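hiii, so i know i said id send this last week but things got crazy w the move. better late than never?? heres the sequnce for the chain we talked about at the cafe, plus the structure i predicted for it. fair warning i was half asleep when i ran it
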Amino acid sequence: MSDVGNLVRSMVAATHPVPAAVVTLFALALALPVAPTIGRALLVTAAVGAGQLSIGWSNDWLDAARDRQVGRTDKPTVRGSVTPATLRTGAFVAAAVSAVLGLAAGPVAGVANVGVVAGGWAYNLGLKRTAWSWLPYAVAFGLLPAFVVAAAGGGRVVAGWAVLAGALLGVGAHVANVLPDLDDDRATGVRGLPHRLGRRGAGVVAPVVLGAGSVVTLIGPPGAPALPALLLTAGACLLAVAAGAVGLVRPHSRAPFLLSMAVAAVCVTEVVLAADAVGAG
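okay and structure toks below
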C-alpha cells in the first residue's frame, strides 16, 4: 500500500500542482458566471484540469534526462519514485480525457480546449528552447476564455479583450516563471525568450506584460470601470513598476519573481471579477 501511496504522491508532484491548480480554478471561476448550469461549469473545469495534468506529466517525462543532468532532486523522475514511461502514459491518457470532455461541451469548445492543451505540449516538445517560447503560452491562455464561453453555449462569443488579456497573462507568467530556473536551463541548452532577454531584461518584461494585461482587463469590458477594478489595476501597475525597478537593480534576487507573481494574481482577480463580460451575446 505504501508503494501505491508513493506512486500517487509522485504523480501528483509531477503535475506541477500549484500552477495546474491555479489554472483549473481560474477556469472554474470564469465558467461559473457564464455556464447555464453548475454541471456545465464542472465539465469545463474537469476538461481544463485533465489538460493541466497532461501538460505537467508530459513536461516531467520529456525533461527527465535534463532534470537528472542538473540534479533536480525535487523532481520525482530524478528521485526514482516514478518512471518517465509512467508519466508518458499518464500524459497521453489525461490528454485524451481532456479532449473527450471538451468535445462533450460542443465542437467549437472542443477545438478550443484542444488548442489550450496543444499549446502546453508544443512548449514542452521544443518551443521552450526557442525565441518563440512565449507563443504557446499566449495561445493557450488566450484560448482558455474562448473555451469557457464556447462551452457555455447560448450563442455567446468570447470578447476580444478577454483573449488579449489571457494571452498577456500567459506570456507574462511564462517569463516570470522561468526566472528561478534560468541558470539550470542554460546549463542544458534551453534558450527561450526569457533566457535571451537575460535575467535583468526578463525581470522587467514579465511585470510590464502582466501589468498590460491588467490594463486591458480594466478598459476592455463595456461601460465605465467599477471602483474595485480601478483599484486593482492601480495596484497591479504599482507592483509592476516595483518589480521592474527591483529587476533592474537586483536581478539575482527572488523579488522580481515574487512581485511579478503578485501582479499576475491581481490580474487573475480582475479577469474573474469581469467574468460575466468575457462572453458577448
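btw The mean pLDDT is 93. thought thatd interest u
miss u guys!!
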